[in-house]
Automatic annotation (TrEMBL):
PANTHER family: BLL5188 PROTEIN, TIS1421-TRANSPOSASE PROTEIN A. Residues 1-79 form the Insertion element IS402-like domain. This is IS5 family transposase IS1647. It comes from Streptomyces cyanogenus. The lineage of its organism: Bacteria, Bacillati, Actinomycetota, Actinomycetes, Kitasatosporales. It comes from the Bacteria. It holds the Pfam family DUF4096.
Amino acid sequence: MPDELWELFQRVVPEAPIRPQGGGRRRHGDREVLAAIVFVATSGCTRQQLPSASLGPSGATAHRRFAEWSKARVWAKLHRLVLDELGARGELDWSRCAIDSVNMRALKRGS
């Protein structure tokens, strides 16, 4: 996990929930879970095939955290931060993203 991406991610990830009952297993760190999620997304393996021995969290843990972060809109916030960062550096080529103004009429459904 590149440090730059991790620094941006820390700005959007919610605080870990507190377990009022205490006990239980240690929660895997966000950075290692994010690395596992990125590994699944980029390698083509399924979460069940995740090599937890080398990455740390299991596929089930990665899936749970992915769902938790999706519900908190972490991915959309991170995407926006990355775009803002790249834009500030002048590293975005907006000429490849040309979108023309389009007017669309809403469909009328039966009365």
